[in-house]
TrEMBL record:
Gene3D superfamilies: 3-Deoxy-D-manno-octulosonic-acid transferase, N-terminal domain (3.40.50.11720), Glycogen Phosphorylase B (3.40.50.2000). It comes from the Bacteria. Its main location: membrane. GO terms for molecular function: transferase activity. This is 3-deoxy-D-manno-octulosonic acid transferase. Its EC number is 2.4.99.12. It comes from Methylobacterium indicum. Keywords: Cell membrane, Lipopolysaccharide biosynthesis, Membrane, Transferase. Belongs to the glycosyltransferase group 1 family. Pathway: Bacterial outer membrane biogenesis; LPS core biosynthesis.
């Protein structure tokens, strides 16, 4: 093991009290579930079911939800699937959407003793990690126990590759222990291989296969009734600064589009009060879903600060600005609103979904804007010409459908590992 990796490994053994302090600080700030906090130190919250088990990890909402198609397929093959994530919001969503045969736990921090507790209890037969969640001690612990680690939906930007290349010995030591990497694109596959990953394949993006987020039919009917006849658009998964841009769009277009309703879904629902106060300070009439407000005709801007209802608002709005893209966050996932029939708008900072946006733009299903002024013009054009918006939506949905198939390819790539478990007698078929 390179010296830097040894220093990290032993540093987290010595520094375990500091990690306990970090968790306590996060709990006070509402970032950890106090009831389930022991899971973050590897203490299990549930018994391990008998039989073969796959551990599937996605860091946050997008990564975890992208795994659901694989989770369902693995359950059909006879596995129990333990899905871990690291955020409270992802845990709340997964509680609603995990299929029977899957369990959720919070992922332990990357400390050797925490991981030993976790692995001693769950004893996974395979480990799947989504995108770029490559924690050194986790990789080392799985390798030491002979558990194949498979990176699915692997993501490696050129910038990240340059960072890994600064410590080539560390990169080789870790990535050589990855049994299989299913990269999202050929370019990313080449970066993983260049850094020392022994087996790399191009699998595509699992998010193209993800089922659209659900919506309560009664809640949708109620909202459609309340908003009927009003021009409506949505700013979804917004980050700080983007809500102000949405409010500016509303103020600029309210006279031209009488009755205009702007919906804002902040990426982090706990910012709802802050977002509402900012909008109200500019003179807009604001409602909040978390406090029971409704988007009735006396509301200009409605803050939907609840968990698990994006599918409801995607179905309600023909025009969706996808956040994290005017802010320099890298963009949030445009696949879900595109699949549900919305015309997609985004800012220039979409590196997290660059290939998705490229496919959508080639098909005419999405449009990127440089700033708030261009966003205002784009929303104006789509609200003023609904047929243009419908044509964009049809093109986007078709592009998403055409790009699917990553789940099938991933399952085919996993088949040799499943066969090894059958041969080893872990399960019968």
């Amino acid at each position: 093991m390179p010296a830097l990796l040894r220093a990290y490994h032993y540093g987290l053994i010595v520094g375990e009290p500091a990690l306990a302090g970090l968790l306590a600080w996060r709990r006070r700030r509402g970032k950890e579930d106090p009831v389930r906090l022991p899971e973050r130190t590897g203490r299990p919250g549930k018994p391990r079911p008998a039989g073969p088990l796959v551990w599937a990890h996605g860091a946050s909402i997008g990564e975890a939800l992208s795994l659901l198609g694989l989770v369902e397929r693995l359950i059909r093959r006879g596995f129990t699937v333990l899905v871990t994530s690291g955020t409270r919001t992802s845990a709340e969503l997964l509680a609603r959407r995990l299929p029977r045969g899957a369990l959720h736990q919070f992922v332990p921090l990357d400390a050797p003793r925490y991981l030993a507790r976790f692995l001693d209890h769950w004893q996974p037969d395979l480990a799947l990690v989504a995108e770029s969640e490559l924690w050194p001690n986790t990789i080392l612990a799985l390798h030491a126990r002979g558990v194949p680690l498979i990176l699915v939906n692997g993501r490696m930007s050129e910038r990240s590759a340059r960072g890994w290349a600064r410590t080539p010995a560390v990169a080789r030591a870790l990535l050589s222990r990855v049994a299989l990497c299913l990269a999202q694109s050929r370019e990313e596959a080449e970066r993983f291989a260049r850094l020392g990953t022994p087996r790399v394949e191009t699998g595509g993006n699992l998010k193209f296969d993800a089922s659209p987020p659900p919506a309560d039919p009664e809640a949708l009917r109620q909202l459609q009734g309340v908003t009927q006849g009003r021009p409506v658009w949505l700013a979804a998964s917004t980050h700080p600064g983007e809500e102000a841009a949405a409010a500016s769009v509303h103020r600029a277009l309210a006279r031209k589009h009488p009755g205009l309703l702007t919906l804002v879904v902040p990426r982090h629902p706990d910012r709802g009060a802050e977002v509402a106060a900012q909008a109200a300070a500019t003179g807009l009439r604001v409602g909040r879903r978390a406090t029971g407000g409704q988007p009735h005709d006396k509301v200009d801007l409605y803050v939907a600060d609840t968990v698990g209802e994006l599918g409801l608002f995607y179905r309600l709005c023909p025009v969706v600005f996808v956040g994290g893209s005017l802010a320099r966050h890298g963009g949030q996932n445009p696949i879900e609103p595109a699949r549900l029939g919305a015309a997609i708008l985004a800012g220039p900072h979409v590196r997290n979904f660059a290939q998705v946006y490229a496919a959508l733009e080639r098909a005419g299903g999405a449009r990127t804007v440089r700033d708030g002024q261009e966003l205002t013009a784009a929303v104006d054009a789509l609200l003023g010409d609904p047929e243009q918006g419908r044509a964009m939506a049809r093109a986007g949905a078709a592009a998403i459908e055409a790009a699917g198939g990553a789940t099938d390819r991933a399952m085919a790539a996993l088949e040799p590992f499943i066969c090894q478990l059958i041969i080893a007698g872990r399960f019968a078929s």
